[in-house]
Amino acid sequence: MKCRLIIFFLIFNFSCIGQSDYAIGLIPAMNLSKKIDASTRLKASLQTRQEFFDSSQEPTFQHKNVLTDMSLFYSRRFKADYSLNLGYQIRFRNGSIFQRISQHLNFVQSVYKARIGHRLGFDQTFVKGGEPVFRGRYRIVLEKPLSGEQVDPEEFYFKIGTEIVAAFTKTSEDFEWRLIPQLGYEFNANNKIELGIDSRFKSIFTNDYNRVYWLTLSWFRSI
Question: pTM here?
Answer without folding.
Answer: 0.86
